[in-house]
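Subject: design request, 240 residues
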């Protein structure tokens, strides 16, 4: 049985920042099972917003034709969202991209460890970036009551142990990431190859209430980095 083709809700045609070591484009896949109030891509998450843009989505074959014209100009493709692992056609989509010689980076929230494990087992991913939102205990409150913290822990272990290259990353908010939460998160990412911290940006949020939340200042970011640095191989602070 042929799996459904993927449709992209958006494309960023060029990036030198999102795929370490590669010049890439980004394919955004629609829909997400998380409802993080501070999400800055609500147009790729909320069903009512997705409905508004559905007519402009890009068919899989059109995106692949776009890649044909970028041969020699791009090294890789970032598959982001939303949450890409929700899509049953993801594996086929990745295989078709790899057949054209492009490397693949997957952005994921880690909620579907079986999907991640399968893609890793099939050697279909060159780089994985997983958002580590908060402590396991606080995941359901932040991302939605259907979130399974054990699935998050499984995905972290899979990526740490099996991904050819990877990073974990956290968007920091003063109101969410108090010291006890950060200390619990240290245990989640302990031993990671690469961990990136970035401050929250309030310009666009899925939940309007989060527009009043605040990001750590530069000094606070350094203090948080110092908390994690002894426990990971590489610590990165990214600006917005």
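Subject: RE: design request

Done. Sequence follows.
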């Amino acid at each position: 049985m042929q799996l459904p083709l993927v449709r992209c809700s958006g494309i960023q045609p060029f990036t030198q920042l999102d795929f370490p070591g590669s010049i890439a484009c980004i394919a955004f896949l629609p829909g997400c099972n998380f409802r993080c109030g501070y999400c800055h891509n609500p147009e790729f998450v909320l069903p009512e917003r997705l409905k508004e843009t559905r007519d402009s989505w890009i068919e899989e074959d059109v995106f692949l034709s776009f890649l044909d014209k970028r041969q020699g100009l791009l090294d890789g493709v970032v598959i982001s969202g939303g949450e890409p692992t929700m899509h049953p056609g993801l594996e086929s989509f990745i295989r078709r991209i790899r057949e054209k010689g492009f490397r693949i980076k997957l952005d994921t929230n880690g909620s579907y460890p079986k999907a991640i494990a399968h893609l890793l087992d099939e050697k279909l991913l060159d780089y994985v970036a997983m958002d580590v939102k908060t402590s396991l205990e606080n995941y359901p409150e932040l991302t939605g009551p259907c979130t399974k913290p054990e699935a998050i822990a499984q995905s972290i272990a899979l990526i740490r142990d099996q991904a050819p290259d990877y990073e974990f990353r956290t968007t920091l908010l003063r109101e969410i990431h108090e010291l006890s939460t950060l200390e619990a998160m240290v245990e989640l990412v302990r031993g990671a190859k690469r961990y990136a911290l970035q401050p929250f940006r309030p310009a666009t949020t899925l939940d309007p209430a989060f527009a009043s939340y605040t990001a750590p200042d530069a000094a606070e970011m350094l203090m948080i980095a110092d908390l994690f640095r002894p426990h990971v191989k590489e610590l990165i602070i990214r600006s917005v």
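The domain at 7-169 is CATH 3.20.20.70 (TIM Barrel).
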